[in-house]
User: What shape does this take?
Amino acid sequence: MIGYYAHHHGSGHVTRATSIAAASDEQFVVLSSRKRPSHSDIEWVTLPLDVDEDVSPIDPTVGGTLHWAPLGVRGLTDRMVAIADWIARMRPRVFVVDVSVEVAVFVRLLGVPVVVMAMPGERDDAPHRLAYQAATRIVAPWSQSVYDPTWLRVHADKTDYVGVVSRFAGRAHETVDDAPGVLVLGGAGGTALTARDIDDAAASDTRFDWAAVGLDASTWVDDVWPLLCSASVVVTHAGQNAIADVACAGTRAVVIPQHRPYDEQVATAAALAGSSVAVTAAQWPSAENWPRLLDDALALNPAAWKQVRQDGAAERAASAISQAVPS
Assistant: This one.
C-alpha cells in the first residue's frame, strides 16, 4: 500500500494524485483536506485543516526551519495525529508528499520512506532543502530538457523527471462545433481575471470568438477537454495541471503566469518560452497587444508540446514511486 498526501490548495495536487494512482498496479490511498474529486473512486482519508482563522499564528516557521507549524493550532495537531494514526494502522511501504515540508519530515520521522513531489520555482530556502534532503526519492513532474532548475541538481541521484501529468493523457481528441477560437482557462487555485478582461481582449481581435472557463462558479466546466481540443489558441495560467492538460490537447497556447509562492508559475512560463513550446506574457496584456500575441501563438508548432513528455507521465511517476523502495 502507498499513502499519498495531497495539498488542499487548488485542485492540482489531488488531480495529480488520482492520475498517478490510476496508472499504478499498487493500492494508493490519498490523505487530503480537499474532498475527493468526482472523477475518481480512489480510497480517501479526509484530514482536518491546519489553520485557525480566529487565532494569530505564533512562530509558524519555527525560526525559519519550516513553512507552517504554528503553536497552539488544534487543526494542525489533529491533522498530524490523523496521518500518524493512518500510518500506524495501515503500514504503507512508501508515502508520497505532494506537497508539504512538514508532512514530509513528519512521515520520515515515523520511519516511512518518503517520495517528495518537486515543485517548480525557487525552492532553495532552508525548509525546502530540508524536505528534499529527507526524501528517499524525488519525482519532478516535468521534463528535464525543458526545465532543469539548479537547486534540484544536487539531488540528481534520487530524482526522476517524469514529464507533466494530466488526467486527460491517452484520451482521444473530442471537438465541439460551437467551441470558441480562443479559450481562456481559470482554475480552482484562484485567478485575478474578470469577465471585463476577457471582453476587452476579445474586442481587440475579432478574428476569434472568445470564452473563459473556470473564472468563477458560473463559468466552471467539469469536462474542459472538448473545448481544449477545439480551440485555436488556449490562454492559460502556468499551473502544472493546466499546462499538462493543454499539452495533451496539443493546442497552441499563450501562457500568463499568476502570482504564486516561490515564483512557481513564472519559472514554468519561462521554461516553456525558452523551449518555444508556448508564447508567454509576464502579465495580462493590454488590449492592443492581443493580435500580435495570438499571431505569435498561431505560428507555434503544436508538436513542440512533445518536449514536456506528457504521454506516459503518470505511468512513469507511478513506477518511480513504486520502485523508491523495493517491495
About this structure: The longest strand covers residues 2-6. The chain has two domains: 2-165+311-322, 182-308. DSSP finds ten helices and twelve strands in the chain. Residues 74-90 form the longest helix (17 residues).
